[in-house]
Amino acid sequence: MKKVFLFTVALMVFSCGDKEQIPDNILSEAQMVDLMIDIRIAEGKVSTITLSNDSSAALYKVLEEQVFEDHNIDSTEYITSYNYYLLNPAKFLRITDIVIDSLKVRQQELTTGRRPAN
Question: Domain segments of the chain: what residues?
Fold first, then answer.
């Protein structure tokens, strides 16, 4: 369900944007959205646990590797794609806006048990 929602939102937003081709070695905007959502969730998990800085960093690295594995990519693909989008501010802002909105929806669903009304 969440994938369908995110895909629909991403498709609507990206279809309105410019039609510049993304290089083959770069993740699509929709893939970056999904990946960044999962990375932010992993960061949130680590930040809620009281650990030393070294332990937090080690735990985050494990969670991050799991996210990459789940998305069938490696850290190099992520870093290359992330840097590409950083150099394309309009695309990067679209991606981060969708990530933030999606995380807000998830948080509200968890706290209230229902989707926010639009």
Answer: 2-7+26-112
